[in-house]
User: Which sequence fits this backbone?
């Protein structure tokens, strides 16, 4: 009888522990994405129109965990620009943004998103492998097995959009298109 009670309590403790681990792993992803996005702001010289007004980081779709992490950047600056975080519920809602994050759930719309953002000085960062070869400037993917971010970069996208990229960023990329 005691063994059975002990096993059921141990099982409950293990389940709670595993739940906390999974929550931490998910939160880790958004923290790493936010840190990467902030570092990118420092490694790219933005085109002239991208240096006007607030520095806007936009997210397409509903990504509350990422938005919460990005909002912590609102106290920081990119050069003299205050960081502002915006969410765009749909492709049609997209407006001027310096960085536009496209989560995996919105990747099917990458062509329309790229077309909508083409009139702005916007770096598209997408959360899917090879996105940098399909319309985004950077593919930013969380490798859950190794608990780290991996990214790919499209050099021609950067040139076409007048971004002057620090060579450090290219040297850290897993692939360059």
Assistant:
């Amino acid at each position: 009888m005691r063994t059975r009670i002990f096993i059921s309590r141990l099982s409950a403790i293990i389940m709670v522990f595993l739940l906390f681990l999974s929550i931490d792993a998910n939160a880790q992803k958004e923290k790493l994405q936010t840190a990467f996005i902030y570092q990118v702001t420092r490694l790219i010289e933005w085109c002239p129109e991208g240096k006007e007004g607030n520095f806007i980081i936009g997210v397409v779709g509903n990504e509350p965990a990422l938005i919460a992490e990005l909002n912590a950047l609102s106290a920081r600056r990119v050069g003299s620009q205050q960081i502002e975080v915006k969410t765009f519920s749909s492709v049609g809602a997209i407006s001027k943004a310096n960085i536009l994050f496209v989560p995996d759930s919105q990747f099917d719309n990458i062509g329309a998103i790229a077309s909508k953002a083409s009139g702005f000085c916007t770096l598209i960062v997408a959360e899917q492998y090879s996105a940098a070869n399909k319309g985004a400037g950077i593919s930013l993917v969380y490798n859950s097995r190794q608990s780290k971010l991996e990214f790919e970069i499209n050099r021609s996208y950067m040139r076409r959009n007048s971004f002057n990229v620090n060579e450090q960023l290219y040297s850290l990329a897993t692939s360059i298109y």
